[in-house]
Automatic annotation (TrEMBL):
GO terms for biological process: L-serine biosynthetic process. It catalyses: (R)-2-hydroxyglutarate + NAD(+) = 2-oxoglutarate + NADH + H(+); (2R)-3-phosphoglycerate + NAD(+) = 3-phosphooxypyruvate + NADH + H(+). Its EC number is 1.1.1.95. The keyword Protein transport does not apply. Signal peptide: none annotated. Belongs to the D-isomer specific 2-hydroxyacid dehydrogenase family. It comes from Syntrophobacter fumaroxidans (strain DSM 10017 / MPOB). Pathway: Amino-acid biosynthesis; L-serine biosynthesis; L-serine from 3-phospho-D-glycerate: step 1/3. The keyword DNA-binding does not apply. This is D-3-phosphoglycerate dehydrogenase. Keywords: Amino-acid biosynthesis, NAD, Oxidoreductase, Serine biosynthesis.
Length: 525
């Protein structure tokens, strides 16, 4: 496995990657876009900070790429949609640089309030200008925080310790949760109208891009000071410039920009704006944290298939991994059985029952069923990341249900495929924490191994049928490993016959032609 590191990495992360057996690491010095384009096709993983953009074009030309790691929080420099379509995971390190970004925000607020950068510059120029740099205390000033996630919450905590009054707006956080932080949750308009300092801590999304624009800036309190240590696109920079120029906005502290580095931005010329070159995460501790986190995540994924902090795949906590492993195998085999038996499928219904599955994350299992289902059908590479997208593209409706009870099993997965003419359902369970069994096919109950090459035969429950199956397979040199039978009261039966070797088409055809046999399907699990 080869890992490419584009934007440098703290030694702590490099050591983790270099110590992993089977992983080779390359750290070119600040490679440009063309260089990355030429190198990426040879790599299984790439790790970036905010400097490198991983575009759809790069991803499409990197057939080996399995995972894109972001040593940080925001993934807006990575085309996550293109990565998902190609089945590549995108992982970040949530929270690992949150303290650094929050402290940087507080530093910017204090520097802005007391004109520290301007005073430093003035002294360098030989002046002792006490009057010019009269500042504002933060004590009892109102700070409005847009985005009360990991960074916003730490900013709130530090601001409260300086006795600021803290307002917060976050549509995805309930007022009660904000109150626990000591923050008064208010609608956006109220936050704009009441804040003396206003700070942004949201990701860049279609909802948040240019959240501060001419219209919203006009609703802010006159003299407001604006801080942005989140993403440049959150503020319309031209509008901010106009509001700074006309004095409605009293000052701004910017760590991030629409274009980085900013070129010819008029903001750079304004005396009441202070800047840092995207330094929010640039503390030794944060860089060690993100490097350690992303290196461990990449090693765990490439070598052991453990997925953590993927923005395009649900995470499995390390403590759940051992327990979920056999269910992942069961999910894939049930999906694969369906993929080989039922086409075309209109609707897929997955039911999770039993106590084991109440405690485990179900989304990875659902993705795994879908992967198993589509793998035998599609020519393109299906994996856990792109499987749900491919299901959607094929217009297959997905319904998942959970039940706390499972008859006799601690964990049962049932997968029903509904096609225009028929339904086929198969259920499986994990016994004693590791043995995978097929426990139901349609109405037939059984307990069969779910692996290898199998014949799935539906027949009329008549004497001699099993003998006929054995003789026919034997005459084609096909050895039976084991056999499970089940029948319903309606004189029909089902047989799952595990074979040592594949049955040739002629053997299957001979069986199909027999009047006591309803259907024969060979499935490879
Ligand atoms: N300057 C720097 O070096 C750094 C910048 N960042 C930026 O900070 C952002 C926030 O990071 P975290 O707090 O760790 O992320 P987070 O995911 O913990 O928090 C983001 C919060 O924004 C909220 N949000 C989403 N849409 C919103 C909307 N329309 N209005 C108000 N709130 C909304 C979410 O509900 C969430 O609570 C990152 O996405 C990244 O872009 C992060 C680290 C360093
Ligand atoms: O890696 C960096 O320097 C920037 C950090 C950042 O913006 C993020 O983590 O979202």
């Amino acid at each position: 496995m080869k890992v490419l590191i584009c934007d440098g990495m703290h030694e702590v992360g490099l050591s983790i990657l270099r110590a992993a057996e089977g992983i080779d690491v390359d750290v070119p010095d600040q490679p440009g876009a063309e260089e990355i384009k030429a190198m990426l096709p040879d790599y299984d993983a790439v790790i970036v900070r905010s400097r490198t953009r991983i575009t759809a074009e790069l991803i499409e030309n990197a057939p080996r790429l399995k995972v894109i790691g972001r040593a940080g929080t925001g993934v807006d420099n990575i085309d996550v949609k293109a990565a998902s379509a190609r089945g590549a995971l995108v992982m970040n390190t949530p929270g690992a640089n949150a303290t650094a970004a929050a402290e940087h925000t507080i530093a910017m607020m204090l520097a802005l309030a007391r004109h520290i950068p301007q005073a430093t510059q003035s002294m360098r120029e030989g002046r002792w200008d006490k009057k010019r740099f009269m500042g504002t205390e933060l004590f009892h000033q109102t700070l409005g925080i847009i985005g009360l996630g990991k960074i916003g919450s730490i900013v709130a905590d530090r601001a409260l310790s300086m006795k600021m009054d803290v307002l917060g707006h976050d549509p995805y956080i309930i007022p009660e949760a904000a109150a626990i932080l000591g923050v008064e949750w208010v609608p956006l308009d109220e936050l704009l109208a009441r804040s003396d300092f206003l700070t942004l801590h949201t990701p860049s999304t279609s909802e948040t891009v240019r959240i501060l624009n001419r219209e919203t800036l006009a609703r802010t309190k006159p003299g407001v000071r604006i801080l942005n240590c989140a993403r440049g696109g959150l503020i319309d920079e031209q509008a901010l410039y106009e509001f700074l120029l006309n004095g409605h906005v009293g000052g701004a502290a910017l760590d991030v920009f629409e274009q980085e580095p900013p070129v010819d931005s008029p903001l750079l010329k304004l005396e009441n704006v202070i800047f840092t070159p995207h330094l929010g995460a640039s503390s030794y501790q944060a860089q060690a944290n993100v490097a350690r986190a992303i290196a461990t995540q990449i090693v765990d994924y490439l070598l052991y298939g453990i997925i953590r902090n993927a923005v395009n795949f649900p995470s499995i906590r390390p403590q759940d991994y051992e327990k979920i492993k056999p269910y992942l195998v069961l999910a894939e085999r049930l999906g694969s059985l369906q993929g080989q038996v039922s086409t075309p499928i209109q609707r897929l219904e997955i039911t999770y029952s039993g106590s084991d599955l109440q405690e485990l994350p179900l989304q990875p299992l659902t993705h795994t069923v879908i992967k198993g289902l589509l793998d035998p059908i599609l020519a393109e590479k299906v994996n856990l990341v792109n499987a749900p997208l491919l299901l959607k593209e094929r217009q297959i409706e997905l319904i998942t249900t959970t039940r706390s009870e499972s008859k006799g099993y601690t964990g049962e997965i049932a997968v029903k495929a509904i096609s225009p003419r028929e339904e086929f359902s198969a259920a499986g369970a994990v016994l004693q924490g590791h043995e995978i069994r097929l426990i139901r096919i349609n109405d037939y109950r059984l307990e069969a191994e779910l692996e290898g090459i199998n014949l799935l035969i539906q027949n009329y429950d008549k004497p001699g049928t099993i003998g006929l199956i054995g003789t026919t397979l034997g005459s084609h040199q096909v050895n039976i490993a084991n056999m499970h039978l089940s029948r319903t009261p309606r004189d029909k039966a089902i047989a799952i016959i595990r074979l040592d070797n594949e049955a040739p088409p002629e053997a299957i055809e001979t069986l199909r032609r027999h009047p006591s046999i309803i259907s024969v399907q060979q499935v490879k699990l």
